[in-house]
Design brief:
By secondary structure, this protein is an alpha+beta fold. It is built from 11 helices and 13 strands. Helix content is 45%, strand content 12%. The structure holds zinc ion. Zinc ion binds next to helix 6. InterPro entries: SET_dom, SET_dom_sf, SET_domain_protein.
Amino acid sequence: MALVIRNGPGRTRERHGVVDESDGKTPLTNFASTKTGNLTVRHPLLELRLTPTTGLGLFAKCDVKRGSRLLSEAPLLLIPSSGPTTYQDLQQQLEKASPAEREALYGLQHDPELLSRNQVRQVRNYAVTIRKFAKDKDGLKSFVQTQAKAMAIFETNATKLVNKSGSAVFPLYSRINHSCTPNVYANYNPSLRTHTVHAIRDIEAGEEILTTYIDSSQFFAGRDEDLKKYGFECACAFCQSHEPSLLGPTTSDATKRDLRRAKINVVKRSLYAFEGEHARADGICAPRSPSEALDRAQDLIKLLREEGLLGMDLAQAYRWASKYSLQFGVLEKARDYAQKEAEVELCCLGPETDYMGGSGNAASWLKHVQATAEKDKVKLRACEKRMAKEVKRMEKKAEKKAKKR
Ligand SMILES: [Zn+2]
């Protein structure tokens, strides 16, 4: 299942720009620097506005229906390596970028503190090898500053992509702020080389578009810890209602919700452990049988829906429920869950999911479930025929016996 985690918060903005979204794509047409800190986007559904707490953010201009595609953008810069970004990686990609892409990249905000000492050293080491700077100290200094800024921009705004496709920075996605209960799902499609953002619930005109940078199915402390790596404390409504004291009664709605998030995390990890995809560590107890796994998958669906976590975690939970139902031969249930998975997947990713291959996408899984149901029907019909024959044979035998008497 696809999962996207964004590296950087992208909070304060310093540039103006123009983005055109006339045909569902988002070609970058022009970015121009100004002093006001605003950014103009031409987009049928979205606009950039100042938020009360997090600088600029993207907002819905009109009511947006669940499943609507809000963004479909090519990366400004994509580094295929999935390890830590090196200056050499960045420099190679910067050379390939067009002037408009470079300008748009330099327009994104950056936090210099996110650069490691090693990365700064790499930039300096490279710069001193350039002959033209041998006698030009100012030129050398300016070059190092520009390159370090590019590196910091990448570290601040890059998104880790699915399928080990590397990390990338996008023109508008990098402007979306974080919430622990996001209203959109973001995904990189490696076959199309585009990053899509879909509404996972109805969004009202004027609402801010919010994605999640972390795994939001955690207790407050875990979410807080993960977000510290991005240099900020979460200002989402859920985190704002958190009660810091654990000594008082734990009956507040916020605490109940936090406990539900923690439960989601445990159940999810236990099911991954059951599937053999994650190590059975940290005291996580995997289900002992498919029947127990089915119960947990159904619990997970309920908990995710209650928490409004309607992204691909929910699609994964439906898949598990469908798979375990199929193992039990409860075909109607298996088909029902597979259809629900397909509906959530379409809402989160759109229809272009062939890149997942095999039974990776919901459509393939649904086909498999339907084919199994069909085979089962054929088997059932054959069995019914055999039984009818057997009944007839026994009836005839009984008749013969009766005649003999
Ligand atoms: Zn939060």
